Model the fold of this input.
Amino acid sequence: MQRLSAIAEQLLAQSRAAGASQAEVSCNEDSGLSVNVRMGEVETVEATRDRGIAVTVYFGTRKGSASTADLRDDSLQATVAQACAIARHTEDDPASGLADAELMAKTQREFDSWHPAAFDADRAIGIALAAEAAGREVDARIGNSDGASANAGATISVYANSHGFLGAERSTSYSIGCALIAGEGEDMQRDSWYSVALAEGDLDAPELVGRKAAQRTLERLDPRSLPTGEVPVLFAAEMARSLIGHYLSAVSGGALYRKASFLLDSVGTRVFPDWFDIDELPFLPRGFRSAAFDAEGVATRESPLVRDGIVQRYVLGSYSARKLGLQTTANAGGVHNLQVRANAGGLPELVQRMGRGLLVTELMGQGVNAITGDYSRGAAGFWIEGGRIAHPVDGITIAGNLKTMFGSIEAVGGDIDPRSHVRMGSMLLGRMTVAGTG
Done:
């Protein structure tokens, strides 16, 4: 951190000397180890170590950026010179420039995200092999594997700008994954499971990951299609997150100032049911996106995105905020930890509450129109009858309009999937079109 901080300050000084009215520097250094095994044999072992230095300068409202991975003084000087040359040849953009100085974070904070551990290749291989072996041993019908993996990574980053702000962050990450194949010929089915955490000790045991992958794979055997019709649809927690992702895209500054969103001018309007809340919580210990400042140095803060179903604010960095005549929401670089309010129990309770309908556990394709909100994606999961799982389903498409879908949410479960910065449970929608061949 000290080395990267010194480089950042050096580059800012060189930018000022070159005549830039404002400047900002981002420095990152990443290291990682990734292992993949399949059918008890090691397929790949990859160690990585990368760094990147990015310089952005402003000459009034003209902007130029350049980057390098070379830390030699002559290379750093050349990077500043290139950024300045680009800025001098660009058009004026009134929205460009650093975020306002008074919005910079005043304090640095740690969020218990730094947990380096001895994670060498032999140990990683052993973890991946253990996950795959545990899964393959569950049932004789699991005759093949799509592989298992074990990964570890560490990131150190520094951001500094000519307002005098300098902030440093660091984090580690670990993951175990396993994908298995059951059945034979055209009746084969594949499914997977994974565990991810900032501290290795928070990971699920590799054997648990393998057995969960096996259970999910076996449950998918002998699937059927469905007749086309309108039915309630229950999204499992890991699938429900994607719907929140579509919402975030629609209220992000870039989509709004380009008028490429179905939620234009939506602040103050009701989009979700009156009990529905989404809160941004950037200060969670061991949160995947915890941060004291955003990618522009702006101080983060806890705040609602949606309260009682009503849109409270957009997701903005300083550039998009200026384009819209608003102020940044400290979301340059994306949102931080989100919490979606639950109003129901876990998945079994929601299955029983739905009674009859579709439980979605996998989504395929990218059939979402950001401008109209039209939604159409391939799906797989389970048919629910009498409040219980009747049989697996695949070869279907689910369709609707996101604005209508958001308004028809009936429940969010308390079965929070902890593997993401979007913390939420399963989500039950009152009705969607399901198209199949049954």
